[in-house]
Design brief:
This is AraC-type DNA-binding protein. InterPro entries: AraC-bd (IPR003313), Homeodomain-like_sf (IPR009057), HTH-like (IPR037923), HTH_AraC (IPR018060), HTH_AraC-typ_CS (IPR018062), Tscrpt_reg_AraC-type_HTH (IPR020449). Keywords: DNA-binding, Transcription, Transcription regulation. The chain folds into two domains: about 150 residues, Regulatory protein AraC (Jelly Rolls, Sandwich); about 110 residues, Orthogonal Bundle (Arc Repressor Mutant, subunit A), CATH 1.10.10.60. The N and C termini lie far apart (about 80 Å). The radius of gyration is 25 Å and the shape is elongated. The chain has about 280 residues and is α+β, with helices and mostly antiparallel strands. The protein has a six-stranded antiparallel β-sheet with strand order 1-2-9-4-7-10, covered by helices on one side. A four-stranded antiparallel β-sheet has the order 3-8-5-6, with no helix packed on it. Helix 1 packs parallel to helix 3, helix 2 runs antiparallel to helix 3 and helix 5 packs across helix 7. The protein has eleven helices and ten strands.
């Protein structure tokens, strides 16, 4: 049996998505693990051979090109075939956004199996991962970057096509919209650009966003810009024109008109009221 196993020290810089461990193993015949639970997400990708993977609900016979997913807190068991034992890479991870990434891949406790048929790209990413020394900061950055690439490769290769509404929780798309606005409100962005970023039809995204927030994307954008303008009026000595451009309005007159519509007073009067 040949094995490479790397454990990664916890680092708060990678709290959104953090590597726990990763490695490679050429298993002995009938080599097994479990039944046991894990405290982190774990993905195995089979390079050759065969084996079985058992959850609390089902047993799966797996082979080269397939993989299995283990969710924290759930009992699983896996065992290499006696005649043709499997060889696999694995990666374990956790973090604030780990669950969202798993949903993007379309893996779950009830659907823990995937098949990767694109090319050898996934294998190459795993090979790069296990070849990197993790003792320094550049090494830590590279391995976490490769984790993102591995997960994105699995998203791209997902063959179980479903409608967007079923495939990913609505909250994920709403968060993508608000994140994009927070990062780009100072530019002249449009709802079409936001929809392109999220990857959904503009009308469908607008309907989804409004059903979740009770406001349109355009209204959310305007309110966010006005909120940022109020903060600048209060906390800076910038001119009205500079504030206008800082929150995404090239025309100060248009900015003043919109500001008055939403706040009831002009930007200048709003600032004066704050200082009196």
């Amino acid at each position: 049996m040949s094995q490479i196993m790397v454990y990664v020290a916890k680092n708060i810089k990678y709290s959104d998505l953090t590597l726990h461990n990763y490695g490679y193993e050429q298993c002995w015949p009938s080599h097994y693990y479990g039944p046991a639970i894990r405290e982190y997400y774990l993905i195995h990708y089979i390079l050759s051979g065969k084996g079985i993977f058992k959850t609390e609900e089902a047993t799966y016979k797996l082979k080269k090109g397939q993989g299995f997913f283990i969710c924290p807190g759930h009992v699983t068991y896996y065992e290499a075939d006696v005649d043709d034992p499997w060889e696999y890479y694995w990666v374990g991870f956790y973090g604030h956004q780990a669950e969202a990434f798993v949903k993007e891949i379309n893996l779950s406790v009830k659907a823990p199996i995937f098949t990767y048929e694109n090319d050898n790209r996934l294998q190459q990413l795993f090979q790069q991962l296990i070849s990197i020394e993790t003792t320094d900061t550049p090494g830590e950055m590279r391995i976490h970057g490769l984790l993102y690439l591995i997960l994105s490769e699995l998203v791209c290769s997902d063959g179980r096509k479903q409608t967007p509404e079923k495939r990913v929780n609505k909250e994920v798309y709403v968060n993508k919209v608000t994140d994009f606005i927070e990062m780009n409100y100072a530019h002249q962005i449009t709802v079409t650009q936001i929809a392109d970023y999220v990857g959904l039809d503009r009308s469908y995204l607008g309907s989804l966003f409004k059903s979740s927030t009770n406001t349109s994307i355009q209204e959310y954008l305007i309110n966010y810009r006005i909120s940022k303008a109020c903060s600048l009026l209060y906390n800076s000595d910038l001119s009205i024109g500079n504030i206008s451009r800082s929150v995404g309005y090239e025309d100060p007159l248009l900015f003043s008109k919109i500001f008055k519509k939403y706040k009831g007073v002009s930007p200048k009067k709003f600032r004066n009221q704050l200082t009196t």
